Amino acid sequence: MNSLFSSLLRLKTTENLRFRRLTSHGPYEVRLYQKMWSAKVSIRGEFQDAFKDGCRLLTEYIEGNNFKMSRIGNVTSFFLVNKISSWDVGIILPITFTAVNTPKPINRMVRIEELNSGKVGVLRYRGKTSGEIFHQKCDELTHWLSSRGSRPNGPLKVTLDTLMPLNYLKQNEIHMEII
Question: Going from the N-terminus, what domains does the chain have, and what CATH number goes with each?
């Protein structure tokens, strides 16, 4: 299950991308991600509510609500992973972080996890994201991967562009691990 989370994000910072593009066809890509660390929380509720609550908790962590009481820079866009009865909301930590130097969260809801490397199918799209759009884009990605002979493996994840205030300019992605 942990390798699913390795299918993460285009970076919004100066930090180097942690994937290699294997194939690209229009908005679809297959990427190979390397190992990395993330901070995550599990939230029950609807798509938008879970995202809002999870982002708040993770923002507190990266702004210094950790035992080092230090701000964490060079983090990526937020992501959501669709679980059976909840959402995992997360953020990828800087490439320099390891098990030894990652600040421990004060809030017990925030978990630090190492994400395994792996191959991931990606669908890039612009605009807002809702629960309905999430499921529609997930179906499109699953169909594209299956039509290419790949075996997609859920659950599905969405990477959200939270830095862009205008919905029509937001660049989002749906990710799915490939086995």
Answer: 2-178 (3.20.80.10)
